[in-house]
Design a protein that fits this description.
With about 400 residues, the chain is α/β, with parallel strands linked by helices. The protein has 13 helices and 16 strands. Helices cover about 40% and strands about 15% of the residues. The strands form five sheets. Strands 3-2-1-4-7-10-14 form a seven-stranded parallel β-sheet, sandwiched between helices. β5 and β6 form a beta hairpin. α5 packs parallel to α6 and α7 crosses α9. The radius of gyration is 21 Å and the shape is globular.
Length: about 400
């Protein structure tokens, strides 16, 4: 049995990783450590816990006693470290929280794992590894060379990356690679860059077995509705204005979360110790086009079927671009992110499989079908569920 500690496993990407691993393997046992802050919802993984293959521990990654206890009681083979404060707007309002959780919390996990896995002389138990989940935002911002996107010219090196993909377009000539210099601009990305450096320092200084993955913007099920895609869906349903920063011309590369989970699994099993792997979707789009696309898809769904009409607090014919409201731009707003995932594709055999047109409609339908989950996570009902299930035990 392979034992994996998943920090932040009740959050968006962490929970999707938990579910992917349980579907994919019969010989894995997971321990989820999560503080259940606003973005963590234990109900997301309640069925997985009840299956007996996931053990849940409520706790802060900064708490050495809790983390050491997990390592002492369980033979942890891998740490997959998702837990982090991750919303840029929140980091602008409260930078210190991000520094404490993302930097000191990561260092605490590293130290506890090093203590547990060490066999002396800079050597560690065989098969152990720490996977640190980071972000493309540590690289800073890329130039947006084209207002109107152009087709990606596919060279031999990336043919495997764009396998079975059509209509791939880009907004600039440059991409983030693993060799791109780190140049964060927000308190959030600076805290993640700092945690990356701590992870690398543990490898270089102590020979500690690590990998770092840096991903582009994820989308999919179970994402907290402060993020762009679930926020847009929620506001459309409620007939509220959809806030778009500045002119909406900032570009992001969108990665389907299930593809990301598969990539992390691939790095965990095949990644060369000490290496960094960029994980991207080759799905560049401006924020305004993303919003318009979601409006179009939801309008189409509502026109084709009345299945979801009971959810709407707005007439179907009012689901249009008039819902868009341009607001003052975010401070230090990076213009463009775009990842080149050639390394992970050529070295490890992973590539982003899900066409964006398929993934975005699947995502929208999931949120329409799971409004109870959205209501729970935005109202705090998930905390009541935790109290009912675990307090007093």
């Amino acid at each position: 049995m392979i034992n994996i500690l998943v920090t932040g496993g009740a959050g968006f990407i962490g929970a999707n990783f938990v579910k992917y691993m349980l579907r994919r393997y019969n010989d894995v046992s997971l321990v989820v450590l999560d503080a259940l802050t606003y973005a963590g919802n234990i109900k997301t993984i309640s069925n997985d816990i009840e299956s007996g293959r996931v053990e849940f521990v409520k706790g802060d990654i900064c708490d050495a006693k809790i983390v050491n206890d997990i390592f002492e009681k369980r033979d942890i083979d891998f740490v997959v470290h998702f837990a982090a404060e991750s919303h840029v707007d929140r980091s602008i309002e409260n930078p210190q929280l991000f520094l404490v959780t993302n930097i000191l919390g990561t260092q605490n996990l590293l130290e506890c794992a090093k203590k547990s896995w060490s066999i002396g002389g800079g050597q560690y138990k065989k098969g152990k590894k720490f996977i640190h989940i980071s972000t493309d935002e540590v690289y800073g911002s890329l130039k947006k060379d084209f207002d109107t996107p152009i087709a990606l010219k596919v060279g031999d090196a990336i043919k495997s990356v764009v396998k079975n993909r059509e209509d791939i377009h880009i907004y600039g000539d440059s991409f983030f690679t693993e060799d791109t210099h780190i140049a964060p601009h927000s308190p959030y990305s600076a805290s993640k860059a700092s945690s990356d450096m701590i992870v690398i320092a543990y490898h270089d200084t102590y020979g500690f077995p690590i990998n770092i993955t840096r991903c582009s913007n994820n989308y999919g099920a179970y994402q907290f509705p402060e993020k762009l895609i679930p926020l847009v869906i929620k506001n459309i349903i409620e007939g509220k204005k959809i806030p778009v920063y500045g002119k909406g011309d900032n570009v992001r590369d969108w990665l389907f979360v299930e593809d990301h989970a598969k990539a992390i699994d691939t790095v965990m099993r095949k990644g060369v110790v000490g290496e960094v792997y960029n994980i991207g979707g080759f799905n560049e789009e401006t924020n305004i086009n993303m919003v318009r696309l979601m409006i179009d898809i939801i309008y189409k769904i509502m026109r084709e079927s009345n299945k979801y009409h009971n959810l709407l607090k707005i007439d179907v014919d009012k689901i249009n671009y008039d819902l868009i409201s341009f607001v003052t731009d975010r401070l230090g707003h990076d213009m463009r992110y775009a990842i080149d995932p050639t390394k992970i594709a050529t070295d490890l055999g992973w590539y982003p499989e899900t066409p964006f047109s398929e993934g975005i409609e699947k995502t929208i339908r999931w949120y329409l079908d799971n409004q109870e989950w959205v209501s729970d996570v935005t109202s705090g009902e998930y905390q009541k569920y935790y109290d009912k299930m675990y307090n007093g035990r």
